[in-house]
Every structure is written in C-alpha cells, then in structure tokens.
Amino acid sequence: MTAHVAASQLRRHAPGRGALVATGLIVTLIVLLFATGRLEARRWEPFLLPSTWLFLARGLLVTLVVAGVSLVASLVFGVVLGIARSALSGPGRWIVAALIEIVRATPILAILLVVYIAMLRTGITREAVVAGIVGLTIYNSAVIGEIVRAGIASIPRGESEAARSLGLTYGQMMRWIVLPQALARMTPALVSQLITLIKDTSLLFIIAAPELLSFGKSFFNFYGNLLETYFVIGCIFFAINYPLSRLARRLEAGREPAERLAVTGEEELVASVATAPATPALQRRSPVP
Amino acid sequence: MTFPTLDDNASLFVQGYLTTLQLSLGAIALSLVLGTFVATVRVWGGPVLASIARGYVEFFRNTPLLVQLLFLAVLLAPANLNVTREPFLAALIGLGVYTGAYVSEVVRSGILSVDARQIEAARTLGLTQLDAIRYVVLPQAIRTVIPPLGNLAIALVKNTAIAGGIAVNELLKASGIIESRTFQFTPYYAMLVAYWTMTLPLAWLVGRLERRLAFTR
User: Fold this and answer.
1) Per-residue b or e along A208-234, where b marks 16 or more CB atoms closer than 10 Å to that residue's CB
2) Among A16, A22, A109, beta carbon nearest to B59
3) What pLDDT was estimated at residue A89?
4) Contact residues, chain B, for A241 at CB < 8 Å
5) Is the ipTM of this complex over 0.85?
6) 20 to 30 A from A159, CA-CA: which of A20, A101, B185, B187?
C-alpha cells in the first residue's frame, strides 16, 4: 500500500514524457526541414553567439516587464470588478457585468490597436509600450474580474450567512472569510491567465512596440534567417510558459474536485467552467440501456 | 489619381467582415476534427502516440499564436500557388492547429467522463472497439463539452484578428487600411461593433446552453 502510494507519487513528480516527446517532434521537424533544403546550418550559426542571446534578452526583458506590470494592474482592477459584480445589486451590477462581457467579447488585438491609435490621436503618449500595457490591462482586468466573480460564487452561501450572523460586516466577511478561500481556488485559473497574458505580449509586435518578437525582427533583418528566428522565439516562450502550465496543473491536482474552478487553459474556458461548481456535467453517468 | 470613395471603403470593410467569418468557420471545423482526433489518440492511442499527441498539445498551447502564424506563413510561402489566398491558407491552418490543441483537451475531459464500462457493454453487444468509440463514447462526450467548445469558438473568432499580422485582409486589417486612408477613427468603431455582432450572440448562446445543462443536472 505504502509502496504503491510512493510509486504513484514518484511518477507524478517525474519529468513529463510529453516534454520529452515534444523535443523529439521538434527534432524531427528540424531534420525534415534540413532534408527538404529549407534550413541550412549557417542560418543557425548566429544562435551560437553570446551576443545574439544578449540582444534577444533585451527584448525578453521588455516582454516580461510588460507582462508583469499588466498582471499586477489587472489583478487590482480585476479584484475590484469581480467584487463589484458580486456585491452590487440593481443597475450598478448590470453596468459592471456589461463592461466585463463587452471587453471579453472584443479581440485583444483590436483593444491594443484602438488604445494605441487613440493615444496617438489625443497626444497622450507616442510610446507603443505604454499603449500596450494599457490595452493588456483593460482586457485582462475584465477576464480576471470574471474569474474573481466565479471564485466568490463558488464559496458556499452558508459561510457568508454564518459570518454575517456572527456580526461581521460585509467588508469583514469578504476580507476574512470569502476572499481568502476564493483566491486559493482561483490560483490555477490565474496562473493559466498569466500564460495567456505572456503569449499576448507578442501582439505588441503589431503596434511596433519593442518586445521580444520585434527584437527578433531586427535580428533577422540583419541575418536573413526568418524561420529560424521565429522558431527560437517560439521556444523561448515555450520555456517560460510550459513550467507555468505544469504549475497550474499541479495546483489544480492538489484540490478536491468540489473546489476546482477549471482545468483547461484558455481564459474563456476558465471563466465559463468556473460558473458551475466541480464540472458536474463531466461526472454525469448515463445509465446503460 | 482618384481618391478612394466611401464605396471603396465600405466594400473593403464588408470583405474584411466576410473574410473573418470564412476564416472563423473554416478554422472551427478544422480544430474540431483535429481536436477530436487528437483526444481519441490521447485516450486510446497507446503510450507512444499519446505522448506525441501530448507534445503537440503542450507546444501549441504554450507558444503565442502570432509566432505560430508568422512561422507558418514563411514556411508555406514558397509553396506558392496563389499569392492572395496564401496568407489566408496559412492563417486557416494556423488557427485550426492552435485551437485544435485546446479542443483536444476539452474533448478528452469529456471522453474521460463517460463510464469506461459502456465500451465493454458495447463490445459485448458486438460492436468493434472503433465503433464503440465512434457511436457510444464520442456522442456523449461531445454533448457534455458543448459549452466549453462554444467558448473556444468565441476565442477563435477573436483570434482571427491576429491573422491581420500575416497580411490576411480580415476585419481588423481592413479597418486599419480604411483608417489610414481616411484618417478618421470611425472605421475602428465600426470594427469593434462588427466583432461584437459575432462574439456577443455566441457568448449569449453559450451562456444559455450552460444554464440549461446546469438545470438538467
């Protein structure tokens, strides 16, 4: 029995076979490309130089700073929006709900573009990075607001009623009873959203902000190795996001099914599955006829 | 030299809208087929195939769609058949393959929710393994995951905007062209409203389905 448990734990902590095979797939792809003459060794040579990596690291730094600042800002706004949507009643609630739904229904690239052009026109700033951070924050605040709302809704009503009947004010109840538990349940969804956010920073490339992809572009303008640069940049993103997705999965696995908000990535999914406690649809058993 | 008329801009906008619709529908179909196939392989494909499928899912979910599209556009470029359709094809494949990774995760969770004994029962009744999967498990699995799949469809429609980055003249790109011609902000307002005409009804539909499922549970 103990041996069995130990073995299964060992298996869980062993590096994923998937990662290994992903590497295998990538190698196969490269070999195929070589065989068809699409890749030549000399096109990869720049990646052997330390200066290349120093150069790309500068772009990566911008990407990470943009993601970090947007994350912190959207967490603040998202928590406010989420609490507002749960706490308000009447027209206030409808306005917050409509705001969240409309922002979530808009492509993030459209938000980035509109914010950037609006800032240019009104002369607020010419810095694409600033517009990018603002755009990413608008979108992610709405998504995190929805995650927070779902998290709050997942805490059994009896707890808040008990807290209120013990004489806690609404604020105290939120602060000490509901939010701590809700935040714990939301963590996996928030980590998944961070992955989406990091991926979305690459869209700043389209409004010409100097992030990783833009640095890559000036790099391949110089060396003329387009495909290789895109590939390496994809791998850099993978190296950041894969550990995060493993973390999200592990956080998820440590919870009771009833406490789970969501399992699978992409933010839209997270928020929607979150509205139903413990994905009951997936546990339903159909009787055998 | 002729100045662009309102007509030019309007038809460009409508074309962009239609391109976005085409791209969305095509990629949704592709991602559903691919995702269901990959999910089936991950559950019943044996260790080697399942690992390959998992590698595909992890890689495509953890890298930005824009990078994937750019890569694919360059990769397909010399396969030159028709210059104007080519970015569209790259975007279609890219969006389908990217979303397929998400679809496979959703469908897989649906498959795992169906009682494994149902396959045994189906086999006893004389169905082959493949028929049992095809006629017994998948119909139930897909029904339970329709709301999350709907959400993925919404995400996909929104992601078509990124195809503008590889020179597909979809809604966002078309609006940008009109904006640079007219130097007015109106095309962007129109663009936002146009996206909402696609995503908001879908979101409403998904919400309705979710509530209905929650009720019958």
Assistant:
1) ebbbbbbbbbebbeeeebbbbbbbbbb
2) A22
3) 86
4) 61-63
5) yes
6) A101
